[in-house]
Amino acid sequence: MNICVFLSAADLADRYTVPAREFAELLGRGGHTLVWGGSESGLMKVVADGVQEAGGRLVGVSVEFMAALARPDADEMVVAKDLAERKALLLEKADAIVIMVGGMGTLDEATEILELRKHGKHAKPVVLLNTAGFYDGLRQQFLRMEEEGFLPLPLTELVFFAEDAVGALAYLEESAGLR
Fold it and tell me: How far apart are CA 164 and CA 60, in angstroms?
């Protein structure tokens, strides 16, 4: 399965990097392919290293203004002209999406992917990996949106909140009929 992971390129604390590495190793050992922003820095590097060392493939989608930061030994690397094209390519190459901890870019990617799913533009499973409670506030906001009628379908049909790497990958594999 090609699993797109949206996440930070920042150097982060162990409470984020250790679970990210665990997820990456599970993904690689499971024979899956990481589809990601292609960066060779921060949490993006941690995940790519883990997947590659565990036997998984790496498919990166960088963007022109950050191409110098792209991982040189990825199995495949595409350079998009801008962020909008990058998001479209990441979604196109993925069978499933995992949203890990990140900043504004990750939040932008997450909301666009969920908006596209809401409108039926894709039916790929989406997981928010809630490492160290990072997305507790976002989950609360989504629940409020659902309760107050802002979502046209149940939140559970849009996104699955996983508290750990094992739960995230299990959900994706079940969704794909691999379990």
Answer: 24
